[in-house]
Amino acid sequence: xxxxxxxxxxAAGQLGFPDTPSARxxxxxxxxxxxxxxxxxxxxxxxxxxxxxRARGIAVDHESLFVAAALHDLGLTDRFRGDRCFxxxxxxxxxxxLAGLGWSQDRAEVVRRAIILHIEPSVPIEAGPVAHVLDLxxxxxxxxSRLDEVPADIRADVVSAVPRxxxxxxxxxxxxxxxxxxxxxxxxxxxxxxxxAGRIANAGFED
Length: 207
Description:
- The protein has helices at about 5-10, 20-35, 35-55, 60-70, 85-100, 105-115, 130-145, 150-160, 165-180, 185-195, 195-200; strands at about 5, 15-20.
- The chain has about 210 residues and is mainly alpha-helical.
- The protein has one domain: Hypothetical protein af1432 (Orthogonal Bundle).
- The protein has a two-stranded parallel ribbon with strand order 1-2.
- Strand 1, helix 1 and strand 2 form a beta-alpha-beta unit.
- Helix 3 crosses helix 7, helix 5 (about 85-100) runs antiparallel to helix 6 and helix 6 runs parallel beside helix 7.
- The mean pLDDT is about 95.
């Protein structure tokens, strides 16, 4: 069962979402702005990130990690999509949202930077634990990278609680549309240079 848990319980390894006002607000925005398949992807990304971060012994602010995961694809939604690269749009939207919740500029910047960096091929730990661990979690969900590092029972629990909803097909369509609309952005390079569509299709999930 995946539910809302105290932050210390999540940090200690229990599978769930951090139960804080900011996390709840980010979850609500995620669900309001995103179609179901995209909202679920963002929430699963947090769960994978938490598992891999703990396995590596990386201490991370789980509230910030959850908010970054829940909002990392805002730039792909109709509500927030703009003329700039989607990761920049999403990062800026998240920072504005967090400012409205009273977060300090420095703490909001950690989330903003993590969202902007998540489109990179890899995000090193030097970029900060939130950005690094978020990248690990997103990679699991999109391409199946490091999926073998997640215990089979946890894999089953995550996908059962937060279904993929035809994620491979629908995410490929959304990202391809973004790449065609903004060929100067990193998404377009992922399609032409590293076969993003193939990576999504071959991820180790049954959609």
